[in-house]
């Protein structure tokens, strides 16, 4: 049946209240408008960012009913007007971060923070502030950070679409929509980890493991993982982690252990949890003179405090890394090529796979710390 230009009725996992289990419902996905594409989702992964906003009861994040999901891969089903970079049938990755290729930031190699479409946890499409999602009774359903991939179909702005090689396994390619790309990029592009250097990673969940993988690719010789879960060390070895520290075994002062291990601090420290106390710990064990502390974890309520004397006299740098400073349209294909060349390890991130009807199992696994990435297939 020809669907181009028509609404599509399909299944989606809808969240109706903060923190509640998702419900599989029939939804209506409207046709794409100008500069938009509608894609048929092949599979999607559950990211911790989904969990964070899923728990929020009030704005700026708490909009319900909502379709979450933002790590995905799909096939272009139809195009809105003024779309030239993709065609029907192309395999694409939607990303929460835009790459408009028009603004000063997107045209610069120095930034990936698009100024035409500044990031927000918006419930709407980015150009006109409306939704393409509803239920059969006409109730509006809210979008999630420009993707909403827990649905068989999604409408995404072309600034958030990257065309990829269709030969890449979809359950691996989708990981580069967010978490894995963020971690790898933070090591390779934000910090620019050097060969022979020492790296400390605070929190070795999916993003921390991706940082380790990026550091390994850059040639770091010592990669120290810091985590309360000792089981993380075994999986960490697959991504190059050489040493493991459990904060509970050192009076919650891993920085002191790392300073001794490295004779003065790690060259690069990454905070991947979103705790202010861990940012302080990471900075405390960052090598004076040239060390870099990179923040990837998110906690909107945390305020960081650093003494001006310490900053002035230590010579250290502290920086944030949003999506690993990667530009989706150019960097995702390069990372996928490295995967196909057997340089980049994506396989070991996928620890579980379920069908859409079992999506709440993916939430349970992540909340219990049992999965790194759980891939959700639309047709499993």
UniProtKB/TrEMBL annotation:
<comment type="subunit">
    <text>Homodimer.</text>
</comment>
<keyword id="KW-0862">Zinc</keyword>
<feature type="domain" description="Alcohol dehydrogenase-like C-terminal">
    <location>
        <begin position="206"/>
        <end position="337"/>
    </location>
</feature>
<dbReference type="InterPro" id="IPR011032">
    <property type="entry name" value="GroES-like_sf"/>
</dbReference>
<dbReference type="GO" id="GO:0046294">
    <property type="term" value="P:formaldehyde catabolic process"/>
</dbReference>
<keyword id="KW-0560">Oxidoreductase</keyword>
<dbReference type="GO" id="GO:0051903">
    <property type="term" value="F:S-(hydroxymethyl)glutathione dehydrogenase [NAD(P)+] activity"/>
</dbReference>
<dbReference type="InterPro" id="IPR036291">
    <property type="entry name" value="NAD(P)-bd_dom_sf"/>
</dbReference>
<dbReference type="Pfam" id="PF08240">
    <property type="entry name" value="ADH_N"/>
</dbReference>
<keyword id="KW-0479">Metal-binding</keyword>
<dbReference type="GO" id="GO:0008270">
    <property type="term" value="F:zinc ion binding"/>
</dbReference>
<protein>
    <recommendedName>
        <fullName>Enoyl reductase (ER) domain-containing protein</fullName>
    </recommendedName>
</protein>
<dbReference type="InterPro" id="IPR013154">
    <property type="entry name" value="ADH-like_N"/>
</dbReference>
<comment type="similarity">
    <text>Belongs to the zinc-containing alcohol dehydrogenase family. Class-III subfamily.</text>
</comment>
<keyword id="KW-0520">NAD</keyword>
<feature type="domain" description="Alcohol dehydrogenase-like N-terminal">
    <location>
        <begin position="34"/>
        <end position="164"/>
    </location>
</feature>
<dbReference type="InterPro" id="IPR013149">
    <property type="entry name" value="ADH-like_C"/>
</dbReference>
<dbReference type="InterPro" id="IPR002328">
    <property type="entry name" value="ADH_Zn_CS"/>
</dbReference>
<dbReference type="GO" id="GO:0005829">
    <property type="term" value="C:cytosol"/>
</dbReference>
<dbReference type="Pfam" id="PF00107">
    <property type="entry name" value="ADH_zinc_N"/>
</dbReference>
